[in-house]
Amino acid sequence: MKRIFWLVVIVAAVVGAAYGISLLTANEQEATAEQTIVIDEVGRATLQDTVIIRGQVGRDSRFAVVATTPQLVTAVGTEVDRTVQPGQELLRLDGRPMIAISGTVPYWRPLDRFSTDGPDVEMLEQFLADAGYSPGTINQDFTATTRDALEDWQEDNGYPVDGRFLPTDLAVQEWPARVGDVHVEVGDPVAAGQPLISLVENDLAVAVQVDPTDRSRLTIGLPAVITVTATDLESPGTVVDLADAPNLDGQGVERYEGEVAIDGTLNLVEGAAVRVEVILAEVVDALVVPVASVSLDGSGNEEVRILGPDGTIERVRVVTGLTEGALVEITEGLDGSEQVVVEVRS
């Protein structure tokens, strides 16, 4: 009876075990059958690595015309946004015209027959000679002939004929230039060193403020796309200036000043808000897969899973390149004919 009892127990155990194995296998098959494999084609696309910053359209300051002695403004001959050409009258001080002439060294003292010799005398004589008034030998000596030529020029150009030249009679700068602001009106007294007219660049540009992270990635010469916030109109541009040292904004945050030149013919106005997308790198016709399809193996190498024609999944090591949004470039490991597994859902 004992043998029969243990035989029954053994048979029951074997049958129970077999049933359990059968049930487990059925559950695994059922779980596998319920999995959904999300795949995507390996494709081609143009990828860009960009930095997006905000900017404002304006003009860079170039220089300011200033008074050299206390005088009275008796006429203003220009206005904001006008382009000043060489030979144009800017304003009058004590009835004396201030005329724009091109040059690199401004006059710094009054000149007359009592002046000591100096290079500014030679500059004045050369100017008179170029204007058609013979000052005699062009040198650093203010002679009677220099005075006669100066008085003839004064008479023809609306100056008091006094044989005396003032530094503000000629505004020596790089002209043409655009008027950014006129600081005085007729009747205003001015002091030595006081700004009279501010000049700006003729061409519009985009002024930007860049945070330290973006500044570390930007270099002069990078291409950009400028988009007008209000209209979505676009123009190509180029980064032309980046500060090496930061400024602090109103909240004490570091910002680096920069400038983006407008290369296209976009019709912009001063003060317009724009979006600047600076292109750091670009790959045309790149082999791409979804970023979600790339993972790391146990050794830290990048890999993707490939779905074979028979439904099997193979892991393939790859090398990635540029990433933009949900796409990443594959530089090694795939030929473009594959289907990659993006996700396996239960």
Write the layout of secondary structure elements.
Blueprint: H1 2-33, E1 36-41, E2 43-58, E3 61-66, E4 71-76, E5 83-84, E6 89-93, E7 96-102, H2 119-130, H3 144-156, E8 170-173, E9 177-182, E10 189-190, E11 195-200, E12 205-210, H4 212-215, E13 223-228, E14 234-242, E15 247-248, E16 254-262, E17 273-290, E18 294-296, E19 302-307, E20 313-317, E21 319-324, E22 327-332, E23 339-345
Parallel strand pairs: 7-8
Antiparallel strand pairs: 1-23, 2-12, 2-17, 3-11, 4-6, 4-10, 5-9, 6-7, 9-11, 12-16, 13-14, 13-17, 14-16, 15-16, 17-22, 18-19, 19-20, 21-22
Low-confidence stretches: 1-33
What is the assigned CATH homologous superfamily of the largest domain? Answer: PGBD-like superfamily/PGBD
CATH topology of the largest domain: Muramoyl-pentapeptide Carboxypeptidase, domain 1
Oligomer: single chain
**Helicity range of the residues?**
10-25%
Along the chain, the helix and strand elements come as HEEEEEEEHHEEEEEHEEEEEEEEEEE
**Rg over C-alpha atoms, rounded to the nearest angstrom:** 39 Å
With helices defined by DSSP (H or I, 4 residues minimum), what is the helix count?
Answer: 4
- The average pLDDT is 89
Number of strands: 23
